[in-house]
Amino acid sequence: MRLLWLVVSMRPHPLVRYRTLAALCALLAGLANLRAAAEAPPATETAILAGGCFWGMEELLRKIPGVVSTDVGYEGGQTAHPTYDDVHTGTTGHAEAVRVVFDPKTLSYEDLLEKWYFRMHDPTTKDRQGNDVGTQYRSAIFVTSETQRQIAERVKQRVDASGKWSAPLTTEIVTAGPFTPAEEYHQKYLQKHPDGYTCHYMRN
User: Fold this and answer.
1) Are 119 and 159 in contact (CB under 8 A)?
2) In the chain, helix, strand, coil percent, each to 5?
3) Which backbone phi and psi does 177 adopt, to 5 degrees?
4) Quick check: is 53 catalytic?
5) Average of per-residue pLDDT across 121-137
6) Which of 7-21, 58-72, 145-159 has the lowest mean pLDDT?
7) Which one of the listed residues 47, 49, 50, 53 is annotated catalytic?
């Protein structure tokens, strides 16, 4: 606004003043738009969830209203760029996980966890889901921000206290590390093989 006042007070030629004012107004409008964009919430958010074999997890997660995309991969281990054969040994520390990109205007992170994630797998069986046994099949939420951590802790406590599960939840809540996408063979596996193996289903 001070710049506008200086332009007016200098009393230049009317055409010069008009063009200068127009340029300054455009500059101020651009700065306002940049500030609004910086303050606006992200168009999408990412969740990384583990709860057993990633085939069945992805098949349920990809159908949730508000989910934009999913892919399966390996998260939470020490080995760089692991393969399925590496992770399957149970020695790399990775979990089979699903990376979920979702629209927070349609689906909140809290609802994703409470209404879907904690219902589609058994979070009380440590390092096991159905017939799959090993640390790679553990229940884990890999958070990407402190806000996600707080929400995940709150939801886990609420589900644990609800009495819906007869044993305490074993779900880990840990900071996400590098996510390594799994081999193409594993992506959307149950879409390619509708009769393929899964131990995931929605509980009441």
Assistant:
1) no
2) 40, 20, 40
3) -110, -155
4) yes
5) 96
6) 7-21
7) 53
